[in-house]
Amino acid sequence: MTPVLQARELGKRYGRRWALRDCTLEIPKGHVTGLVGPNGAGKTTLLKLAAGQLTPSEGDLRVLGEEPESILSRVGFVAQDTPVYAGLSVGDHLTLGARLNPTWDARLAEDRIAQLGLDPRQKARRLSGGERAQLALTLGLAKRPELLILDEPVASLDPLARREFLQGLMEATAADEFGVVLSSHLVADLERVCDFLVVLVDSRVQVAGEVDELLGTHHRLTGPRRDPDRLPSNQYVVSARHTDRQSTYVIRTDEPILDPAWVVTPLTLEDLVLAYMERRPAAGRRAGLEALR
């Protein structure tokens, strides 16, 4: 099955500065994917490359099996500031969407605007932040994309507006099968809607996979202080904290943890994301010993 997004050693440079470099990633079809990472990790650059708004400086990128520039009509994009035109009315936005998109679904757009209680005559400048976000989402959905890319669409919204936006997204994905890639700093929001996760740090993918599988194979171990070299070879150390007497590891393993010295606790999605975001590059399994002191 063709991935919705496939990057190989992808890079984007502005002058001497690399915004994204050596990024290799594959996102399979059939998922709502959460993309998370610290500021400067390259998330927005990656999404703009996937939406055909930027061209790579190096490497290769395929979206729905094609070069992004060749499938713009099949990809919807909602940017971080949920862009709408302040001087246009809600209805003007729908008219513009219909003119620009050959696959435009006017009934979907009109029904959704009515469901949201938006007045088609109202200027976008008079909408609340949540209403502007919902209008931008409507424009993306009415395009009937095969892939919808959302770059921090709820970052500036209050909790109620975020919940309503994400509820609308979940309802849309349940009604129609299309891929979603959602970038967000708010892990709780990702946990609510995403079933596939990508953690990007310094342009490199730290972990990627289905959320249920990742949570089932990652564990927190707490017990007497122990060097990571003494852990079984099938336990990959993601992060570690140490005191004089105690070690706390986040590890990834497919095998049962049988050592009675450890107290084993499951991770939340936020625990898992933070463990990978806080990792420090180091060689070998001893990386965990000095990490996160």
From TrEMBL:
It comes from the Bacteria. Keywords: ATP-binding, Nucleotide-binding, Transport. PROSITE patterns: ABC_TRANSPORTER_2. Residues 5-227 form the ABC transporter domain. GO terms for molecular function: ATP binding; ATP hydrolysis activity. Pfam families: ABC_tran. The keyword Transcription regulation does not apply. This is ABC transporter ATP-binding protein.
